[in-house]
Amino acid sequence: MKVPVFPIKQSIALAAALLAAGCAAPLPALPGPDTQPAASWHAPLPHGGSVADLRRWWERFDDPLLLALIDAAQEASPTLAQTGANLADARAARVAGGAALLPSLDLAASASRERPESTAPVAQVSSLGLQAAWELDLSGANRAGRDASAARLDGASALWHEARVSVAAETARLYVELRSCEAHLAQAGIDARSRGETARLTEAATAAGVQAPSATQLARASAAEGQVALLRQQAQCELLVKALVALAAQDEPALRRQLEAATARLPEPAAIEVRTVPALALAQRPDLHAAARDVEAAAFDAAQAQARRWPRVTLAGSIGALRSSSLGVSSEGGTWSVGPVAVTFPLFDGGVRRADAAAARERYRAATAVYAGRLRTAVQEVEGAMVTLDSSARRGSVAVAAVDGYGRAYAATFASYQVGASSLFDLEDARRSLRAANSALVDQRSERLLAWIALYRALGGGWSPTDAIASSVSPSDAPTDPRNP
Known about the structure:
GO molecular function: efflux transmembrane transporter activity
Pfam family, one: OEP
Shape: elongated
CATH class: Mainly Alpha
Order of helices and strands: HHHEEHHHHHEEHHH
Distance between the termini: 61 Å
Helix content: 55-70%
Strand order of the largest sheet: 1-2-3-4
CATH topology: Outer membrane efflux proteins (OEP)
Number of strands: 4
Organism: Massilia arenae
Main location: membrane
Subcellular location: Cell membrane
């Protein structure tokens, strides 16, 4: 039977005495991030009495195809798959960090058949036992590691949601750009046909001696220019369709058939309510939540690196059963041991632990700087989207009035040209003005939609910190509906 190397009470007392001078030393305080968001927004609020819940925002678009594409893109996104894997890694690290505070327990079994001497009988020996080991963590290094891994798990969960919000916003952006491109393509088609008709009429007038031959050449050049613009616009729309096919993993012929049902129709979003101050509104951004958890994890890393400069205390023990037999005689019994209590003193390591502690403090300072910078950027993104929304809304009625005015002017100039009262140069100038006004109107509507999408993304897509807690259970348990993060 084995006996303890030291009586357990005396051993622990000895370890505590040896560590009292070092491990009880307080860790240096680390400065927190200097973040002072503004007390109010310095941009026009983007709601005029009609507000929508951000969580259900995509449902409020009057376009079911957009919603279906967002669902498909999130399902096929490699970014989401990668963040899901990162979340699983963070969960495993959190389990490992908690396990470091607990004793380890192993089951050991062995069996042997031997003849130790040539004249000795054959003997059979078997044993079964439990072996335990435990680091007492008097310095707090393992506790700091556990807390750091917990913070990183929370941050990884938030980044998973951030990826979902980003994929939804990117899909919506591509869709809006495609519909805007189709609207421009429709205008380019109207313009090209009008130029072709003008060229035909001019050729007839030249043949009748009413117009000079130079007018025919100018009209033909104008018609060719219209075809070039039409073909260029068609190519841009084709590229956007290809991008949507790749992002949402769609069958291209099927997607084209779905798109044809509402060609050149821009979706109409609901308004987003932004009434809270920046500090409260930005609390729902998952990327900021993750950055804050990075700061917390870096602080625990610094505490762990500092604690590792002090001695470590470990305790081992075992209990088991032994059975042996020889010449038909067998014997069996129990064995146990407690100890040794091992105290490891770091005397000299060439400055490695000190350098690690200094590096951990610098990583903490870097994390605080990153968090503060992201907070400033977040405020800028929200206010920039609100400024763009306000500007596009103000320009809306003016853009419509410009199209109406230039349309009337072009109709009058065309009628005047047909009777010879206006030149082809006057007609082309009126046509260019009308085309520019139509393009400006499409751009204004597209810009407004893209600003709404940018605001949705800047406000975190309706995410909240409770979502990070809920999704910490399992990646498969996390919600996948983009309308309800």
